Amino acid sequence: MSIIQLTKRQEEISRIVQENQPITGEKIADLLHVTRAALRSDLVVLTMLGLLDAKPKVGYFYIGLENQRNEYYHFKDMRVSDIMGIPLTSHQGESVYEVIVKIFMEDAGCAFILDDDGFLCGVVSRKDLLKASIGGGDLSKIPIGMIMTRVPNIATVLESDVVFEATEKLVQRQVDSLPVIRLAENGKARVVGKFSKTIITKLFLELKE
Predict the structure, then answer these.
(1) Which of 9, 56, 59, 196 could tie 177 with a disulfide, CB 3.0–4.6 Å?
(2) In what helix (H) or strand (E) does residue 20 lie, and over which residues does it extend?
(3) Which residues form the CBS domain (predicted)?
């Protein structure tokens, strides 16, 4: 079994929690002289690893390597392809109205936009659609390509990526989901799945049970 490599800050967070448990994320941030947002990805990683446990309105507790359950070690080696979900896709020629209907019918947080050849060319979120709606105009005549975030300004993950690394990217980018892609010979990306906060939350609850 390989040894988990923590960053210096993650080691410092573990020490602080061990010495001051239970302790809130805000208090940890104060002791490290950083913002709560700056610690978010580290706390996610440490909790997913099982080094820390968190209880709402109480704070973080230290568990430690010696008390980790086997499920957490399995999680460490898990790949995105093991847990990815089905992506919601639309084509860049579709109207904003059509994409709004798709997103709400599927109860999705975003849609991944494909070009005429079926490659990823953009992403549109509920927030983007709300802004477009407030802006006025006939939404049935505005192509979704006009308001989407375009490649290469999109974070993606590969099927082979480790779930831990993908989770860190998800948290750092402060988005609800990322497209899981498979690169073609021309360097463009095919969307083969989605990696989301909801998927991670469900997995974490399964491990806790």
Answers:
(1) 196
(2) helix 8-20
(3) 78-139, 148-209
